[in-house]
Automatic annotation (TrEMBL):
A GO molecular function held by the record: isomerase activity
UniProt keyword annotation of Metal-binding present: yes
A family per Pfam: FAA_hydrolase
Swiss-Prot/TrEMBL keywords: Metal-binding
One example of a Gene Ontology biological process annotation: carboxylic acid metabolic process
Domain Rv2993c-like N-terminal: 1-63
PANTHER family: ACYLPYRUVASE, ACYLPYRUVASE FAHD1, MITOCHONDRIAL
Protein name: 2-keto-4-pentenoate hydratase/2-oxohepta-3-ene-1,7-dioic acid hydratase (Catechol pathway)
Domain Fumarylacetoacetase-like C-terminal residues, every copy: 68-265
Keyword field contains Metal-binding: yes
InterPro entries: Fumarylacetoacetase-like_C, Fumarylacetoacetase_C_sf, Rv2993c-like_N
Length: 269
């Protein structure tokens, strides 16, 4: 099931997406897609209402509003190498605040303190329930599904400041969407194609199978230290090919079996 969060007539709700997102409209198109509005929230038992609305008549929102986004750095060897970094011996976690999260179609606002902002296409894991110290064999039980993410990074700031809070946590630096795909199991998520394009030009092309630390590794490692809440998000790292974004660019992250997340870059003003 694909679960979207949306706004219509001033009301916010979740809905199950029906239709083929790879249809005649092409990647990122919502042509022909319909939302069946969910009674309740997807983090508990819910029912479909049977009330349906065309997806192109609503505003898609970030599929969740996470309490926290836990992101993993240097989890693809080729990406670490392209920036001249060593692969860490253990998962390298950092946070992106909830205020960094935006949805599909929202604008990435170029931060005033940076002159070099990069895209980073990533698979995002959405947590389904409160969990702590999750054993490897139970990891599948705490995952609601997966979505596309863009870990937008002020690269020059990242290189000059020891902490990554500003470089990776500025407002609009965490696009998520377009929806949560719940029909992918751990084995499937372990080998998905992931790409990023800028103005239609292919920039990144990799597979989640290239991750150094698996999804199981990451959730076990993170929950050793902290409690994850329903709707929290884990960003699993980016493949090689990261590169610059400029005001006026359109960046699209596509993940096999999930969909396409598209955002434009604008100047602050």
């Amino acid at each position: 099931m694909r679960i979207a969060r949306f706004s219509i007539d001033g009301n916010v709700a979740f809905g199950a997406v029906e239709g083929d997102p790879t249809g005649s409209g092409g990647p990122g198109s919502f042509d022909g897609l319909v939302l069946d509005i969910i009674k309740g929230v997807p983090f508990a038992d819910f029912e479909l209402s049977g009330t349906k609305v065309p997806l192109d008549k609503v505003r898609l929102l970030p599929p969740v509003l996470p309490n926290k986004v836990v992101a993993i750095g240097r989890n693809y060897a080729a990406h670490a190498a392209e920036l001249g970094n060593e692969v860490p011996a253990a998962p390298w976690a950092f946070f992106k605040p909830s205020t960094s999260v935006i949805g599909p179609g929202d604008n990435i606002v170029y931060p005033s303190f940076s002159r070099e902002v990069h895209h980073e296409a990533e698979l995002a894991v959405v947590i389904s329930r409160l969990c702590r110290e999750v054993p490897r064999e139970r990891v599948k039980d705490v995952i609601l599904g997966y979505t596309c993410a863009n870990d937008v990074t002020a690269r020059d700031t990242q290189q000059t400041e020891k902490q990554w809070a500003r470089a990776k946590g500025f407002d609009s630096s965490c696009p998520l969407g377009p929806w949560i795909e719940t029909g992918i199991d751990l084995a499937g998520a372990a080998d998905l194609a992931i790409t990023a394009t800028v103005n239609g030009e292919l920039r990144q092309a990799g597979r989640t199978g290239q991750m150094i630390n698996s999804i199981e590794d990451l959730i076990v490692n993170i929950t050793e230290a902290m409690t994850l809440l329903p709707g929290d998000v884990i960003l699993t790292g980016t493949p090689a090919g990261v590169g610059p974004l400029h005001p006026g660019d359109e960046v699209a992250v596509t993940i096999e079996g999930i969909g396409t997340l598209t955002n434009k870059v604008i100047s602050r003003g």
